[in-house]
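Q: Structure for this?
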Amino acid sequence: MHDDHDHHDHDHHHDNHYSDMQARVKALETVLTEKGLIDPAAIDTIVDTYQTKVGPRNGARVVAKAWSDPDFADWLRRDATAAVSSLGYTGRQGEHMRAVFNSDDTHNLVVCTLCSCYPWSVLGLPPVWYKAPAYRSRAVIDPRGVLAEFGVTLPAEKKVRVWDSTAELRYLVIPQRPEGTDGWSEEQLADLVSRDAMIGAGVAAVPGIAA
Amino acid sequence: MNGPHDLGGQMGFGLVAPEKDEPYFHADWEKRALGLTLSCGAFGAWNIDESRHARESISPATYLSASYYEIWTRALEVLLERHGFTDADEIESGHKRFDGATPKRVLKAEMVAGVLAKGGPCDRPVEGPARFAVGDHVRTRNFNPATHTRLPRYARAKMGVVEAVQGSFVFPDDNAHGKGENPQWVYTVVFGGGEIWGEGADPTLTVSIDAWESYLEPV
């Protein structure tokens, strides 16, 4: 059975075993199920978790609270793991969190050049581009060029700090709060915070302009 | 190892090509591959570092042309075979042919929420104080091990400054190979763009890595 979305990546360099990933993975799941090693319902639950429960809305709420509550922002700077977990966002690939704050002087960008390290507990599963060679290779040597592809042009004098996630610390970028948002609720503010902005591959949306 | 995964600064991969309104999965098999990888990780037979090393040990031509879920699946098969849970014949046939190794646990649906919420913290206490302090100048070591390491090639033999002492963590270079967790202090070390990339580097650029203590030498 061929899935018509399965178009991105597998068009060359493949032995026969991997020419049909749908069949390959199905075979693996069947073998492991017959051996009592896995519970297919657990896979369903994992998928449901990351499709409906754990995603970038978590991170957006962290950012919105940091914009609204200076004490929380300070806590994030000192102990992001504790501050983030106080909002209920804990667990896999968020065990050791660090928050890095964009400022007038500095823009932060997060990458994992060696694999796909990413703060799942606040951003959910990483997008394909984050795990692919183009981003992983270029983010550390040409971050401005990468940002331009996301529609972000930084002032020439602005410093760019790239965080390569080579250990088990997981980085969340806190974008700058847009102007014109005084008095906004945290829920309203969270709507301005995209996943890309929390990787550093974007900035927070300006009120009145679609994110 | 100097594998295909160590991508920082390589060229020729083209545009990043972010996808607008990207779906969580691009095919049903990707969902199953995610769930299988996490479910089998729960066996307790290998650790995250051995998993990463299995992925980076995929041959370069294959690694660079595969989607990440394919990389995960290929590495998972290697790990399952290495630890005696299945073999190539079973996977090829798609059916059980022998009783294999027994996992420490089987992840059932009702366990998933708890397991994901708990995660896998890898901070560990170490004896002895941190060797370096914030503000110290350090040089990363120059080495090319054939085994697992988390010091990228682009950041070897480079001068940097310790920006943060992050605590002590499992040492992946050992843990990936069954040599124990052997925790070390981990530091965020920041480098000027010019130190890493030399001529023509963006003068506004700094890059940091998180480095285990044994990756660093005092200057």
